[in-house]
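Appendix B. One record, verbatim.
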Amino acid sequence: MSSTPPTPHEDLTGRARIRDAALEVFAQRGVRGATVQAIAAAAGVSTGLIRHHFGSKEGLREACDAYAIGALLEQARRGMEEDAAAPGFAASMYQAGGASVRYLARALVEGSRAASDLFDAGADLTERFLAERWPDRYPAGARSTRDAAAVMSAMHLGTLVLHTHMSRRMGADPLAPEHVPRIGTAMVGIYTSMADFLTGEQGGRLAESLPADGTAPTPPPPRENSDE
């Protein structure tokens, strides 16, 4: 006797099915726009089961935060342990799962706790990478090292926030698993090209024009008007 093929989430526990549905609904509508009713419909459960497992929409959101961050940061930490290149940090996170990635893309826009934790953890990993690879240029704990790590993290996580614009320009969804490698390839190409540019004459002048410590020059004092 044949059985009906399982629908998505059917082989998961009720709690996991609700969580995965919530990841998708939160990603599509944002936390404010998502309703418990919409999540229940997507998961194929009652709103009462959601309240039983999570208490409220906020409790469900916290569960999604914990799951999404845990999955993606595990990928990032594994990459660091395997001596993966820091520019691949964001690409390695994409591999953790499409629903988690899209959820965090929305969280970064909305400024949730998940977004703060993800950014800080990514910056910490990047800071460690820079200090270990180039200790003379990026001393551990130095302001310049923290600045570089924060900027690099913003550059990489920006591909999550701006993925709809990237889709328009690339002609494909960059968060789809089959297109994720294109992000890593582009990043490596950009880093390589910029390294070549900065060692050239024009790039050298640009680098020399910036203060070594990143501090803006002190503006001259205002001129006093004198009565003639």
